[in-house]
Design goal:
The complex is a heterodimer of chains A (227) and B (216).
Chain A (H helix, E strand, L loop, with lengths): L3 E10 L2 E11 L4 E5 L6 H8 L7 E5 L4 E4 L11 H11 L5 H14 L15 H13 L5 E5 L7 H16 L4 E4 L3 H7 L2 E6 L2 E6 L1 H5 L4 H11 L1
Chain B lengths: L2 H37 L4 H16 L2 H16 L5 H29 L3 H9 L4 H31 L11 H12 L3 H28 L4
Classes of the chains: A alpha/beta (227), B mainly alpha (216).
Bound molecules: adenosine-5'-triphosphate and magnesium ion.
Chain lengths: 227, 216
Amino acid sequence: MSLLEVKNLKKSFDENVVLKDISLNVEKGEVLCIIGPSGSGKSTLLRCITDLEQEDSGDINFDGTFGLVFQDFNLFPHHTVLKNIINAPLKVQKRDKNEVLKSARDLLKKMGLEDKEDAYPHELSGGQQQRVSIARALAMNPDILFFDEPTSALDPELTGEILVVIRDLAAENMTMVIVTHEMSFARNVGDKIIFMDDGYIIEEGTPEKVFSSDNARMKEFLGKFYD
Amino acid sequence: MMLGSMVSLLMEGMITSIEIFLLTLLFSLPLGLLIAFGRMSKFTPLRLIMKVYISIMRGTPLMLQLIVVFFGPYYIFGTTLSPDYRFIAVIIAFSMNYAAYFAEIYRGGIEAIPKGQYEAAQVLGYSKIQTFFIIILPQVFRIIIPSVTNEVITLVKDTSLSFVIAIPEMFTVAKQIAAAESSIAALIVAGVFYYVFNVLVAFVMARLEKRYDYLN
Ligand SMILES: Nc1ncnc2c1ncn2[C@@H]1O[C@H](COP(=O)(O)OP(=O)(O)OP(=O)(O)O)[C@@H](O)[C@H]1O
Ligand SMILES: [Mg+2]
């Protein structure tokens, strides 16, 4: 059985039908990249899966823990970097303090932020903040990690550092679903690509298959990136 | 009258003023939060009631509210008023009035917190109550402390309004002495006391402001 199964998901906001019929599977250890034009429903799909939005119909089968990395980080500005990371494991998961601290410091090291644990989010660059938010999500030991355009709020020169972190996670077989506009990144890191347009999945499969698709809308979409 | 005995009479009045001040804060700060929740409720009747309540409390003089709370039970129910009720009426009127102002301050602060903060907290598994107290309220405090400081300083001065129902707080005492002595000295000393009181209040609030100012 797949780790995550979405079946016939539908979602509208008033008259606006945003997700028309979405079905997908994510296997353990797999990296799924979701691409598609603005307004095609990518964020809404992630928000339904992560319970931030209630779907109108369809099934979402997943039991386990998940993390979500937001485009604009959503760190807690009144907590230090360390507290941002350890507070939910302590207060929500009620884990042992020493164990949580150790894993938080390991994560900070992995993110190259070992000297920032006492800093507040506003003292960090956007790229550093996004790495903290990834550490915060990972500290919950999620079975699956969702990213909604994790580099879109960053200057181009900071995008790379986040993509490297995600690539490293992929190398460790972290299960991830990544909504992204970084085509070459999706192509390199994704085990599977889904191309969404207008509330439907138009094309899905391996990067080789999807990026060489003959589908007109897919070609038009990719054309915008390579022009 | 000797300056010394005047000061000690005023000090006694000051203790009553401080009691009014502290009890009002004790009740109005939490009550204001509840009113703010009502004011932001999705349940329309509750929201409207709170809106009207706030509007009346802010739109009519506190002195009039004091008189209504004090004499209301007598005129409406014909009950005789126990002497203790005088002080209780002051606390009720002040708390209800200040709660309305605090409610609007809380509401402004709460509405200034971005939706993403709630979403991040929800995804991390925080309960609604944890989210409010761990994530939202500390950020609200930072935003609202300057406005709360203004209200608290006004409250110090407003305690003097209790003279209308003859509560022996500092201003009432000062007026009595001034009338008896045909001298303005007691009023000037009272003014100095109010000023010192407010300098202390401002100092405490500045400390609080600093404590919650994680951006600096
Ligand atoms: N809370 C909401 N209320 C009403 N409409 C919404 C809401 N959230 C999203 N929508 C609408 O749903 C549609 C899809 O939005 P969504 O954010 O899922 O697209 P997206 O694929 O993530 O786009 P982008 O690449 O720009 O992030 C848009 O038309 C948007 O206006
Ligand atoms: Mg989006």
